[in-house]
Predict the structure.
Amino acid sequence: MTTNTTSERFTVPIGPQHPALKEPGAFRFNVDGEIVTSATVRLGYAHRGIEKLAENQNWVQNIYLFERTCGICSHTHATTYCLGVEKLAGVEVSPRVSAIRTLVAELERIHSHLLWLGVSAHEAGFDTLFMFGWRDRETVMDLLEMISGNRVNYSVNILGGVKVDVTPEIVEQILAGVDLLEERTKHYLDVVSTDAGFLQRTRGVGVMTREQAEALGAVGPTARASGVARDLRVDAPYLSYSDFPVQMILDDRGDLEARFVVRLRELFESYRLLRELVTHMPEGELATRMPRRIKAGETVSRLEAPRGDVFYFIQSNGSDKPARVHVRTPTVCNMTSVVKLALGHQLADVPLILAGIDPCFSCNDR
Amino acid sequence: MNTVTTIAALLLFPSGLILLLSGLAFEWADRKLLAQYQNRLGPRWFQPLADVVKLLAKEEVVPEGVNRTLFIALPIAGLAGALTAALYTPLFGLQPAYSFRGDLIVTLYLLSLLTLCMGLAGSNTLDRFSLVGATRTLTQLFSYEAPFMLALLGPAVAAGSWQISEIADYSSAGRYLLLTQPLGFLVAIVGLMGKLELPPFDAPEAETEIVAGARTEYSGRGLALFRLGKGVELVVGLTLVAAFYMGGVANPLLWLVKTLILLLVMVALQALFTRLRIDQTVGLWWRYGALLVLVQWLIMVLVGLL
């Protein structure tokens, strides 16, 4: 992905180990003074061979494996896998199972977006927003812990159902938590769209036009901030999203400010959806019987993770183990945009442009 | 007898050991207050001291491709500059240890020595982060230096002397120059933040971009000396601004109260703003900082004429 070469190159390496990167990834930025003239990226430092490993474990064991693909959107990965396997086996789950999966998925989206808000603010050098954002994120972490018993890998899914139920006490806590978070999110939206100092670093920086976003194949909030209407929850509703529709949040400015605004406004949609879900929770069995061996066939399963489109290809040869599982995560789709957008910007903007796509190197490398 | 007091003044009080310790104490206050503003706990009171002791005990790695003498000498020169500057300032509310006509200019240059040493230390290595950091450090030096100096010369002109002790005495006589020269005060306090590379002027050491900037290759003693130098500069800078603009620091209690109030304001500014890019820093200083301080001077001249 090298774009050009100059006779006198001064290369600033960011990664594989660098304070701006919480995970390993190697970027080489050639700079002229402070201006980035070319950029390359090398990935694969966190490759764990998950896809190969999946072929040696049975269908049930793989839930736990795929849940660990990503530390942030763990539920998304497990759900995508379970949905695919259930489709292959021809098993229908009850509406309640879908609703609980949706509930956890939306809580996870809130936790992911608030985490991103903090990380990005830190990259921009606004540590106060970082600290406050992460303090409030604890609310949703507590809710997730209350529902599932875990803060990170919730382990809510089983094949054909879920392990946990949502009791009236939990509903009460979720409603209280959502009220608090909604109020705080309003404040953060106000900060990122009016704070002059912060806007100096985000407004008009790293602009990705709609055409560029489509050409580079951007997904998720990164694409929606450039005006590309692409959200699987709306385009191809899964789980309970057809009964509880969400509104797609779009912004056509395409700069870093738009990405902040889109992600924060998506939170309001999540809060609204959570309130509807817990008050209109459908009834049904929590688990459906699943066969140990899945009949031969192949399928594709897609979900809208907090970062964008997660894609699973699952192939079965009729045994108790998958023949092939392929995973593609949103970071792969968005990574090219970083290398493209960094050109012509100052070195100081690069960490923020990188953070703007909400990169997740370990799920990218699998 | 005179020699003994001179040596004591240099090594123990007011310069030397006590100053180093108070630098660490102010660094702790800065970090603790910032943490409180950000709803964190913040470090324990002895943390800066513990950091320095730990660094002093560690191996100092001299990287390949550097001028060894310079690499070792620059932190020492920087700290020495900051400590020497302290001799001419009314630290702890006492009279300066040394004083002569025009010592204000000398002190300001001695304070810049640390920044200069840091810039040179960064340029001395082959490390890319250090080089970018050094460029930014020196760029920042050239942007805030002139407005900051003009802001500190405002009180000097009002007092009719370029001798720090005389300016301090002038404002100790109940003259709160921050009321008569508010623009100068603003530029002075923000300039001090720029000098100390505190947020939002921390582009030269922005960890998410260039790790630790010019000091990236420093470890052990060199890093400890640079940090001590920063601490000393914080105390000296706060003392100067408090003595000039906030009605003087006639006794130790007044000194402590006024410098802490000043620190509180500075920490609030640190918590409020996003880090500026280096071009934004330069733009801010030359477009607004220099302009504000010139307006202040213009007002002073006009008032003087009337």
User: Anything to note?
Assistant: The mean pLDDT of chain B is 85. Chain B is about 75% helix and 0% strand. Chain B touches chain A at residues 37-40, 128-129, 131-132, 135, 199-200, 202-203, 206-211, 271-280 (CB under 8 Å). The CA atoms of residues 66 and 171 of chain B lie 47 Å apart.
